[in-house]
Amino acid sequence: MDVLICIKQFFNSGAIVQQSSTYRMRLKKNVRITDPACVDIVMKMTLEMPDREPVKPFVPGQFIRMGIPDVKNPAPAYFAVASSPHESRHYEIVIKQGTSIGDHLALLAPGAEVEVEGPMGKGFNLAPFKGCDVILMGVGTGISPLRSVWDSIIHHRSDFGKVTIYAGFLTPLHNLLTDEMDALSRHNIEVNISVATGSDDWNGAIGYVQDMLLADHPSGENSVACLAGMSAMVDACSETLQNLGFNDSRILLNF
Asked: N or C: which end of the chain has fewer CB within 10 A?
């Protein structure tokens, strides 16, 4: 189960978020971001308005509902916005093959149009936590909504204390956005990457993101954590954070 399925479960539960009308966006780029040797294909789509108007503003961590114009099957689905909230020219969306809509979107060529609704969801609002340390935790494609968060933090770096990212992937070949994360040290952001299954050339941590978190043992007194990924990961990380002294108001989900 990935972050897309978690969002589907949220909507199926009857929870209500803000409503918005649908509109068209045009695909500018569609680039694979998983290693060519990886069996799982993940694409990064760049979407812009057809008339190149500014895209709708969004809170880091929000998502859009995206489908194919005038097509009911495959049905539209929900995808987190991975781009910077300070970028007004386009959205960047991470798409994983393996679902009907994901398979279809991954094969679209530049110039194709998609139907979009949103942005929607509560996102990660860090405004009440100025002066706090920030922990970002994500696995797999759950890294994509956190990308918008760390970019927002970079633009307001002096508002926060220590910033730490815990990113988890299935194998080293499944790593997403790691080149970007490697460059975050220049902004005084610490990055910890683990994989569930290592390889001969992998020298990093093996295990789960909550294991790295527990080893670091951060204090929950002046920290806030943003979680994104599979429901099992979110539950396990929430329990670990609670055991470290984080109350529920300091454990943020984006939906």
From this structure: N
